[in-house]
Amino acid sequence: MPLDSVIVDRLRNVVGPDFVRVDAESCAAYGTDALKRGHPADAVVLPANTSEIARIARICSETRTPLVPRGGGTGYTGGAVPVRGGVLMSLERMNRILAIDQDNLIAIVEPNVVTGDLQDAVERVGLFYPPDPASLRQSVIGGNVAECAGGPRAFKYGVTKHYVLGLEAVLASGEVIRTGGKVVKNVVGYDLTQLLTGSEGTLAIITEITLRLIPKPPARATLRATFMDVTTAVLAVTQLIARRVIPAALELIDADSLAAVSAYLKGRTLAPAGTGALLLIEVDGLPELVGAEAVRVADACRDAGATEILRAADDRERDELWSVRRELSPSLRTITPLKFNHDVVVPRGRVPQLFAVVEQLRRTFDLRIPCFGHVGDGNIHVNIMVNPGDEAEIARAHAAERALFEGVIGLEGSISGEHGIGFAKAPYLSMELTAPTIEAMRAVKQALDPLGILNPGKIFGSASRTSGSE
Amino acid sequence: MPLDSVIVDRLRNVVGPDFVRVDAESCAAYGTDALKRGHPADAVVLPANTSEIARIARICSETRTPLVPRGGGTGYTGGAVPVRGGVLMSLERMNRILAIDQDNLIAIVEPNVVTGDLQDAVERVGLFYPPDPASLRQSVIGGNVAECAGGPRAFKYGVTKHYVLGLEAVLASGEVIRTGGKVVKNVVGYDLTQLLTGSEGTLAIITEITLRLIPKPPARATLRATFMDVTTAVLAVTQLIARRVIPAALELIDADSLAAVSAYLKGRTLAPAGTGALLLIEVDGLPELVGAEAVRVADACRDAGATEILRAADDRERDELWSVRRELSPSLRTITPLKFNHDVVVPRGRVPQLFAVVEQLRRTFDLRIPCFGHVGDGNIHVNIMVNPGDEAEIARAHAAERALFEGVIGLEGSISGEHGIGFAKAPYLSMELTAPTIEAMRAVKQALDPLGILNPGKIFGSASRTSGSE
User: Fold this and answer.
1) B244 contacts on A by Cβ (under 8 Å)
2) How far from the centroid of its chain's Cα atoms is residue B447's Cα?
3) DSSP A358-425
4) Cβ contacts of residue A113 below 8 Å, gap of 6+?
5) Which residues contact A208 (CB under 8 A, 6 or more apart)?
6) Residue B464 reports pLDDT greater than 60
7) Measured between CA atoms, how close is B168 to chain A, in angstroms?
8) pTM for the full predicted model
9) CB A296 within 8 A of CB A269
10) Neighbours of B2 (CB within 10 A)
């Protein structure tokens, strides 16, 4: 449904005619993200600054037009998809690093700075921004904040929310708020910074982000250990923690995933025959620490019954050890072109039970379900592989998805540790949260976006009472 | 104003007659906290569990009675003071540690577990709960969460919010919500866990807390370094960070504070003559790391121009080094019986400028203002000493307080890093936050407590539109 031409003219008046697109191609291209279930926007607008964003929000409020902010478009739950049409606001022009303050360990950025670019920039001056979603070369800080992105380093360093000190954001009304600031401790009023972090663009449009940085760890060591099964690999992790080691990365890869990578790499063998689980472990810090920790890591893996333990001697070998993890995504595509990529999370000690649940799903629903993930956090990527044309398989995959979520909640876990709810997981929200808890969240949504124009149809799904378009 | 006897009877019906107090003595005793500016409650109620709390909230909602939750009563901004009377709900009977899950590094506690008791309990099994407010032997986890308490270890380990994984809480309506859970990554819906953390009892009554634990660091080293002035001490901190060391404690004590402690300890000399600033530095972790870091700490202090560097050889010497910090509070009481204890925070590099501001205040307002604090975070306790009977001095102290906050905000800091706003700092809220930001916070308050019965008069002060009693 095309947008009223009066609205389009008003948008053009704000950002200039070059930065409003209403052609079908643009509206479709900006209407899809990594979920690959898109919906076209009615118009795409590319603001240059906070003031333009505030004016656009006012136009959308006055005309009850859905307004969907978009960063890198790398989300797996459709968070940036304008499911109700309306105005898609791409923040791509707001991509500057405004400050890197070495004295105070702070960076100030516009929302569309690519995460990997920020990491490179701060590392050049000896600092470190730990959150490292797999998409870090495409995804942007604003999107990372909106989704509270995680990554392999979360076990030691925490997720995005642990690095967000302050925000500038535009409310649906067009009001500009400033939350938090440049200090690491701040208890003045409600923590709107943390409330907006992970709110998936439904409460405000984030226009500037103040991030906490830490000193870059000067040394690291990388190890790979293989195990007969997931249970012994998790035992190694437990023994490692008992030895007071918190690795910077602790990635688990299961047999199905290993097989896919081996096939993709033309049969190159990555692990001893019979390997049921592989751990990639990286420790970092002062050189003295790294040496001591690497010894403890190897001891813990050996004691747990590792079948093989390798330690990278240099960067080239490190690169080689990591290749299995790096090649996972393209490898899975050789199984089927589409995957339902779930980021479930359970208390760490229950990871073996989660794998038992998945094994049951494979049998019950006759599906390929390779798994890998951040085992330190209990955050496992469960990839239900499907052929896009195979309706029966897709139906089985959806049934498996629901059964997976039921299993995860039975293990006191969460249906999303990294990707958020978007619209893809909205039907499952009430499986995890009680009705009064969802009502409290809706009340917060209603409070900050009373007309329901910001990213409608997300988190609460179509049943949301907060959606102005219903 | 006594509470309507019908309400008192209903409360007695919920918790039993022994656990409702309406005598003047109880109402006064429970109506004051560490701020020492109390207001009597109309009734004190001591519930035993969540279900009773929910029923009490419903009674208060139906009768529009203010309801003020209270933990340890150690807050410095009057957060637990029932400034509008009503029902004071002490959570003292809910003081059980429900679980310490060693496999998953989690503790589940009722709100009134004393923070130090929890620390002792988890350390006995090799785990660690880092947040360590000075009041940890009196304050309770529920209050720590409500205020988002900090402490010396925050620089390395973060503040309370970084350890809160999940909450059970009762809304003003009596609805029970459950936020977050047992997993460290969770992006399902809004982060109500973080929103409630630091909300000072104005959004919900916290009834159960799931906390993240970490392995206990097996070794530590403690150093003391003295400097001619604050600027060189801060330079040492900067050099230390440049050497990639993040101490577990990094406490700065100024000359006025040192003088008070020396006088209190009967003239025992704590530092070389002419000392303008003292740093207490503690590093912890694996033994190999602690040794390496201690060397770097000493190097950094020496390079910055330390006049003396001591390292504790054993626990007895560690205790001796820490005595100056431990004796600070009683020592300050020998200057005057009352202090306006402020917990301002600035970007760390600006701590010397903050001390320049304080020096100006000393001269302008003729006041004793000893300072000490967590210099790694830029979080400095500025103690404006006053004699309770001296009206003129109190007036000067209030003027100094306002000037301090103006100075802090000029340095891009915050007026509260640890204590929260309560009612004592409510008049200053708008100095730090813009009007639209305060409006957004009020909208959140209105959404979760539409009648304004929960802890009215706090954060937003008397001008709050959300207060049902206005």
Assistant:
1) 215-218, 285-286
2) 26
3) HHHHHHHHT----EEEETTTTEEEEEEEE-TT-HHHHHHHHHHHHHHHHHHHHTT-BS-SSS--TTTT
4) A95, A96, A97, A140, A141, A142
5) A50, A98, A108, A109, A110, A111, A167, A168
6) no
7) 10
8) 0.96
9) no
10) 12
Cα B455 to Cα A237, A262, B79, B146, B201: the distances in Å are 44, 61, 8, 12, 6
- Structure-token pair, residue A420: 């958020």
A244·B216 Cβ contact <8 A:
yes
Contact of B383 with B367, CB cutoff 8 Å: no
Is any Cβ of chain A less than 8 angstroms from the Cβ of B234? Answer: no
- pLDDT tens-digit profile of B371-430? 999 999 999 999 999 999 999 999 999 999 999 999 999 999 999 999 999 999 999 999
ipTM of the complex: 0.96
Q: Which of A12-26, A256-270, A280-294, B164-178 has the lowest mean pLDDT?
A: A256-270
CA distance linking residue A56 with residue B376, whole number of Å: 41
CA dist B8 and A13 (Å) reads 62
* Nearest beta carbon to residue B190 from set A158, A416, A444: A444
Q: Which of B243, B238, B245, B309 is nearest to B280 (CA)?
A: B309
Contact B103 A418 (CB under 8 A): no
Residue with the two structure tokens 């191609």: A25
Q: Do A339 and A370 contact (CB within 8 A), yes or no? A: no
Q: Would you say B237 and B250 are in contact if contact means Cβ atoms under 8 Å apart?
A: yes
Asked whether A372 and A381 are in contact (CB, 8 A), the reply is yes
Q: Residue B214: exposed, middle, or buried by beta-carbon count in 10 A (0-12, 13-18, 19+)?
A: middle
Q: Which pLDDT tens digit goes with each residue over A46-81?
A: 999 999 999 999 999 999 999 999 999 999 999 999
Distance between CA atoms of B268 and B141, rounded to whole angstroms? 36
Question: Chain B within 8 Å of A98 (Cβ-Cβ)?
Answer: no
Closest to B191 in 3D by CA, of A183, A134, A159, A72: A159
Contact B403/A at CB under 8 A: no
Q: Is A234 helix (H, G, I), strand (E, B) or coil?
A: helix
Long-range contacts of B431-439 (CB under 8 A, 24+ apart): B431/B405, B431/B406, B432/A188, B432/B405, B433/A178, B433/A188, B433/A189, B434/A176, B434/A177, B434/A178, B436/A171, B436/A175, B436/A176, B436/A177, B437/A177, B437/A178, B437/A179, B437/A189, B437/A192, B438/A189, B439/A175
Bridge partners of residue A385, in order along the sequence:
A339
Residues 15 through 74 of chain A touching chain B, CB cutoff 8 Å:
none
| Residue B349 contacts A where some CB pair is shorter than 8 Å | yes
> Percentage helix, strand, coil, to 5, in chain A?
40, 20, 40
What are the E-state strand segments in A74-218?
A: 87-90, 97-101, 106-109, 127-128, 164-170, 176-180, 205-212, 214-215
Nearest to A224 by CA among A247, A242, A244: A247
Coil/strand/helix, residue B435: helix
Which tokens sit at A454? 């910001």
Q: Mind telling me how many Å the CA of A449 is from chain B's nearest CA?
A: 10
The Cα of B439 is separated from the nearest Cα of chain A by a number of Å equal to 9
Instruction: Give the residue ranges of DSSP H helices in B112-254.
Output: 115-123, 141-147, 154-157, 192-196, 230-242
Task: Name the DSSP letter for residue A463.
Answer: G
Cα dihedral angle (A210, A216, A220, A222), rounded to 10 degrees? 20
Residues 6+ apart with CB under 8 A from B60: B66, B67, B86, B87, B172, B453
Q: What is the pLDDT of residues B126-140, one digit of tens each?
A: 999 999 999 999 999
- Closest by CA to A139, choosing from A187, A99, A79, is A79
CB pairs under 8 A between A and B: 291
Interface check for B217 against chain A (CB to CB < 8 A): the answer is: yes
- Which of A148, A188, A353, A381 best probes binding to B when mutated, by most B CB atoms within 10 angstroms? A188
